[in-house]
Amino acid sequence: LFLKMSVYGPVVKIHPVVLASIGDSYERRNEGASRVIGTLLGTIDKHSVEVTNCFSVPHNESEDEVAVDMEFAKNMYELHKRVSPSEVIVGWYATGFEITEHSVLIHEYYSREATNPIHLTMDTALQSGKMNIRAYLSAQMGVLGKTVGVMFTPLSVKYKYYDTERIGIDLLERTRDAPNTTNGLTSDLCQVGGAAGRVQDMLATVLTYIEDVLSGKQTADNSVGRYLMDLVNKVPKITAEDFETMLNSNINDLLMVTYLSNLTQAQIALNEKIVVL
Q1: Does residue 228 share a domain with residue 245?
Q2: Residue ranges of the MPN domain (predicted)?
């Protein structure tokens, strides 16, 4: 069983909800269980595997054997397909820092459920002071007709999130320094203001970099220049007057929708009181 190999294969993109689900299943594990395992769901393309969901699978393991509730895993996958038919089985996860002999047996089961499944490990014990997250791809090795082993090759891991997941991440970050405090979701207007502030900070950083390059304080980076060119090209060409007209029109539409929704709520509340009387 070899683990230290060069990075080769698809890029694994993991969403925050997957990491949160794995951590939650570890906290809710059965008494005496050293780790938990589960199925990874997501999508696959030519160059990447995107993990968007997961669910834990009951299992028991000792020094001599491992038992996995495969019927439970199949039923859970069937239920998930009804909600998200585009998500397929892309692999499985296990908490812990290393791959064990039992991991090879479990991986053989998932190899029958998916083509080239990935194996994801998350160090919930924080052995190195942080939650190391690693992904592997397996391949058989050995001499044909003789003893055959399994080689796990590490893959590149990246983190990806939807806009809704970013809101949850920002909320969690506010409790990082003071975990005992309680924070609630802010209003939409506050979120827009915070996003605008972050955009202003990033633009200030970009302008500082450009001024340093023009003055000779910093060496120009061609890759950064290409990113800036793409950014400039994506900005729509519109005059200030047209932009103000468009903004005012959208604000008027928003105010009209808000007024109609409040009027509808008032009518419903009045109708409920009349029915009660």
Answers
A1: no
A2: 12-142
Same domain? For 225 and 250 the reply is: no
DSSP E strands: which ranges in the chain? Answer: 11-14, 37-44, 48-57, 59-61, 66-68, 88-95, 118-122, 133-142, 148-155, 157-159
Structure tokens at 225: 């220049």
Secondary structure of residue 122 in the 3-state scheme: strand
CA 16 distance to own-chain centroid: 3
Closest CA to 21 of 154, 168, 181, 153: 168
Bridge partners (DSSP) of residue 11 are 48
CB-based burial of residue 76 (10 Å sphere; 0-12 exposed, 13-18 middle, 19+ buried)? middle
Question: Which position has the higher pLDDT, 70 or 100?
Answer: 70
Enclosing domain of residue 194? 188-235
CA distance 165 to 123: 22
Tokens of 110: 């998932």
* Percent of the chain clearing pLDDT 90 (strictly above): 9
**What's this model's pTM, rounded to 2 decimal places?**
0.65
In the structure, what pLDDT confidence band is assigned to residue 264 with cuts at 50, 70 and 90? very high
